[in-house]
Hints:
This protein has three domains: about 1-90, Multidrug-efflux Transporter Regulator, Chain: A, Domain 2 (Orthogonal Bundle); about 105-165, Multidrug-efflux Transporter Regulator, Chain: A, Domain 2 (Orthogonal Bundle), CATH 1.10.1660; about 170-235, no CATH class. α3 packs across α10, α6 (about 120-125) packs across α8 (about 150-160) and α9 packs antiparallel against α10. The chain contains ten helices and four strands; from the N terminus they run αααββααβααβααα. The strands form two sheets. The protein has a two-stranded antiparallel ribbon. It is mainly α. It is about 65% helix and about 5% strand. The chain has helices at about 1-10, 20-25, 35-45, 60-75, 80-90, 120-125, 130-135, 150-160, 170-195, 200-235; strands at about 50, 55-60, 115, 145.
Amino acid sequence: MAAARAVQARTAAPTLFSIGQVLAKLTPEFPDLSPSKLRFLEAERLVAPARTESGYRKFSHADIERLRFVLTMQRDHYLPLKVIRVQLEDFDAGRVEKLAPPARLPGSILDSERRLTRADLLREAGATAPLLADAVSHSLLPAADAYGEDAVLLLRSLVELQRFGLEPRHLRGFRQAAEREVGLIDSAVEPIRRRPGAESRARAAELGREIAARLEVIRTALVRSALERLDRQLR
């Protein structure tokens, strides 16, 4: 009877996995995943594995699915961990039934990424080949054989701006401003990125996303404020 109860207890106990086993399950999908990245995600309160008496981490099936969600949101949607954490907290609190990708944010740096041929890009953006060539010549888009979702959004906006007489040549300063912004982000995260270990590089990448999101909010607010001032002057 005692042996039967012991077998039943072992059967009912959840299966737990070591860091090595978790890596074996997830690295085919996420080749850059490492033990330090797993520890970093734990430190950021995105996953909370159990610990053995000796202090070794043990991950459940639910922990692995949680990690898969976090890594997918980073890779495919370029979301900062703060945004991902809010989704996880909503799921844990029962405010959402399942973890799912967020609604796309048109025009945002947080959009997911696809790869499109030049023909696909022109078709989806409703643009002409001369407009694309003009955008490339003024450094608003790279000269490439494949483009991502951001290129569709940018080219579609250029199509709309043509209605107001605005051409790519009028927007050359935007490219320079973007490069200055990237330089600002890079200088902010460089001390962290230069520290040894993959965990530092992961932390630097995450901070870069967070800073970029904050700068986007500030840029939008400044433009809105300037437009409001202009509107008051014209009244």
